[in-house]
Amino acid sequence: MADTTATRIGDSSEAQQFLDTFRRSEYLEPETALIAAILEDAIHDYRKYRSARDAAGKQRFRESEEWLMHEANGWIFSFGNVCEFLGLNPEYVRRGLREMEGSGSDLEKHRSNASKRAA
Length: 119
Known about the structure:
Blueprint: H1 4-7, H2 14-24, H3 30-49, H4 55-69, H5 79-86, H6 90-103, H7 107-118
């Protein structure tokens, strides 16, 4: 297995890699596709609107952040339940999102730096 630096490449994009795998598969159960789409949409909004300056963008970021970072699992479509259904560790996904947020860089820059660390 690769060293721990290479293993960390997926830290901030584990959910995205998981969803990309779904897209490549020939057939998904409709329920799995729906759950994956919910998570993908929230992660997309979180990344895209985290630096928004307009009211609509800020609102989309707040809504996605609230859902992604909320700990309670009382609702069937809570982040924790969605991750459990998809076989993801919610804290691992959250940590990747937080690390990405703290870096102040966009996704492409993050991927570029991860590639350099792996080399």
